[in-house]
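# nightly structure sweep
# worker-07 picked up a monomer target from the shared queue
# config: single-sequence mode, recycle default, output format = C-alpha cells
# input follows
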Amino acid sequence: MFGEHQRLMYLVAMLNTKLCQYYLRVFSETLNYNQGDIARLPIIIENKDSVNSLATANISLSRLDWDSFETSWDFARHPLVTGKQTVTASFAKWKSDAAERFDTLKANEEKLNRIFIDIYGLQDELTSEVEDKNITIRRADLRREIRSLISYAVGCMLGRYSLDSDGLAYAGGDWDAGKYKTFSVDTDNILPICDDEYFDDDIVGWFVDFVKTVYGTDTLEENLRFIADALGGRGAPRQIIRNYFLNDFYKDHLKIYQKRPIYWMFDSGKKKGFKALIYIHRYSNDLLAKMRTDYVHEQQERYRTQLSHITDMLNTASGAERVRLLKRQVKLTEQLQEITVFEEKVHHLADQKITIDLDDGVKKNYEIFTDVLAKI
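# output follows
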C-alpha cells in the first residue's frame, strides 16, 4: 500500500536530489522556480520503501540537529549538559555525535541520488556525490557551542530554563519557584553586568555557580579555563568571561533571536557604567524602580567611594602607581557621569510604572524603553 504520507515522503526525497535540480535547470531559464516548473517534473515511483526509509531517517537527523539549539520549539536542554564532569568531555561527545549525524545524512543523500539517477537512467549526466557545504546540518563548532552554553546558562539564571526539566520552564503565566531546585533562579529578574564584581548577584558569579552545579566543584577551574579559551582573549578565565558578558553576549543574543531579544539589556552607554539583563516574560511594572534603587543607586555610590579613595591615594602616590591611579580616576569619573544620566532616564520611566503586553511583540515593547536599553 502506498498511501498519501508515503507518497509525500517519496516526493520530498526526490525534490532534494540532484535529479530534481537537473530537471529544474532544464525547465527554467533562471534560478527562480515556480509551481509550474515543479508540476512539470516527471514522477516515476520505484524503490519506494528504500526511498521513504532514507527520507524518514534524514528528517529525523535534521530535526535532532535543529532541536539541539534553543530557537527550536522542541529544544529540551543544551547538548553540553550531559552529566559529564567536564565541558571538554561534553563537547567531545557532542562533536562525535554531530559528526556521525553529518556523515550519515551525507551518505543517505548520496544513496538517494544514486537511486533516482538509476530510476531515470541519467548515469551519464549526473553523479551521486554531495559536497559537504550542501549538507544542512551542522558539525560541532567549539566557539559557537560554548557561546550557546552561556546563553542557556543565562536562561537558567533568569528562569526560562531549569536543570530540573526539559524545555521551557517559564514563558509567562503563573510563576512556580519549585521548578528550580537544582539551580536556583535570580529572584528579582535583574542580572547586573559590571566590569568588576560589585554585586552579590553579579552575572559572572552566577555563571561560575552554574558551571559548578552542572559539572561539579572539583573540575570548576578546568572548566572555566576551557570556556575562556573557547571565547578567546587574554587574562584570567573569570575576566575573559566577564569581558564576554560586557562586550559580546548581547550581540550574540540579538543574532540568535534576529533582533527580537527575549533578554533585554539595560545599558547606560559606551563607558559601561551600568548594564543589567532581564527576562521579558518576568517583567513587572515595578522592575525599573527596583533596578534604580537596588542597583543603579548602589553603583553610583560605589563609584563615588572609589573616587574618594583614589583622591586620598594620589596625595602620596608617584611614578607608575600615580599614572595608574589617574587613569582609573578618569575611567570612574566618566562612568559616574554616564550612570548619573542613565539614572535620570530610569527614574522617569520607573515613575510611570509601565505595563507591557507581550502580544504587542518585542519590537513595540522595546521601543518604550529605548532610552535605557542597548541599541538593536
